[in-house]
Specification:
The complex is a heterodimer. Chain A is built from four helices and four strands; from the N terminus they run ααβαβββα. Chain A is α+β, with helices and mostly antiparallel strands. Chain A has a domain of 115 residues: hypothetical protein PF0899 fold (2-Layer Sandwich), CATH 3.30.2320.30. In chain A, strand 1, helix 3 and strand 2 form a beta-alpha-beta unit. The model of chain A has no long low-confidence stretch (mean pLDDT 93). The chains are: A alpha+beta, B mainly alpha.
């Protein structure tokens, strides 16, 4: 082996050894720093836990106040949206009923007769006075005698027209018994008693 | 003879290189250790400061404000969930609404 080759071999070996020394040191330094970072995080977490035991109730109160309010507001918004849907349904129903009463469609006259019959049966009186809007009065005038016969009661028409979309109010002559059977009244009753079933139909329960 | 002398001189220079590398390595580790000690000391000092302040009932504003920020983030998520529900409600198909209207009409009109 020539002296040049010997030198080259020595240099290569020395450089390798130097690099190994530095790489080892670098790895060790990184390990030291990583351990320190872990220890630092542990100290911080421990402190946080310790402080939380001291002020836990205050922190919970802050959390509950803010998140609780968001829950409350959110539930209210959802509830309002559901109520709006129900309102829309009942408003559509009201419009349909109004159209039916105005045009006489959907066998409206038969509906009015049934409303009178239902009231008469519920009241159990021998004499009845029926009030309706002006449009229905015309039809009722023609059909009351037939209805009286069918129901076996004396039914008279109140000359004073009602401000109603349709349907009737039936009372006994002394007005001690009154049966409200207007379409608006029945719609309000349906709203009160059937809201949950309507919500179920809409799939919002 | 001259060659041998050159090789020996080179050997001693390389030996010095390694000694210097060793010193550099030790310096590197020592600096890391110093930095690590400082980090841990600072964390311990801060921890003690906060513990003492908390025990005196002061210095909690920071935690409360932090908790407030966290709670506000959670609240925003909660609100978003409810907003989603409201959006879903707006997508109810017309058939369902129509069927609900029919149901109401059935209830209102006498049989």
């Amino acid at each position: 082996m020539s002296s040049i080759e010997l030198e080259a071999g020595l240099i290569e070996k020395a450089v390798e050894e130097r690099n190994a020394i530095l790489a080892k040191a670098e790895a060790r330094a990184e390990r030291i720093l990583e351990n320190a970072r872990q220890e630092e995080a542990r100290i911080r977490n421990d402190t946080e836990r310790h402080l939380r035991t001291i002020v836990g109730s205050e922190l919970r109160a802050v959390h509950d106040r803010i998140v609780g309010r968001a829950n409350l507001d959110g539930r209210k918004t959802v509830m309002e949206a559901k109520m709006e849907l129900l309102d829309d349904v009942f408003e559509s129903a009201r419009e349909k009923l109004e159209a039916m009463a105005k045009t006489g469609g959907g066998d409206y006259q038969e509906v009015v007769k049934k409303l009178v019959s239902e009231a008469a049966e519920a009241m159990g009186e021998e004499e009845l006075i029926v009030s309706s809007n002006e449009a229905d009065q015309g039809f009722l005038k023609k059909t009351l005698s037939e209805l009286s016969r069918e129901l076996g009661v004396s039914i008279k028409l109140d000359g004073e027209p009602l401000e109603t979309m349709g349907g009737v109010i039936v009372k006994n002559p002394k007005a001690t018994k009154v049966y409200y059977n207007t379409l608006e009244g029945r719609l309000i009753e349906a709203r009160q008693s059937k809201a949950s079933e309507v919500a179920e139909k809409l799939g919002v329960i | 003879m001259m060659d041998m002398e050159r090789v020996l001189s080179m050997g001693s220079r390389l030996q010095r290189l390694l000694v210097e590398a060793q010193a550099e390595a030790e310096q590197m580790v020592s600096e890391a250790q110093k930095q690590a000690d400082e980090m841990i000391d600072a964390a311990r000092t801060e921890s003690n400061r906060r513990r003492m302040r908390a025990q005196r009932g002061t210095g909690l504003e920071e935690m409360l404000s932090e908790e407030e920020k966290k709670a506000e983030k959670e609240a925003a998520k909660v609100s978003k969930e409810y907003e989603k529900q409201v959006e879903e409600l707006k997508k109810i198909p017309a058939e369902k609404t129509d069927s609900a209207v029919e149901f109401v009409l059935k209830e209102v009109l006498p049989e």
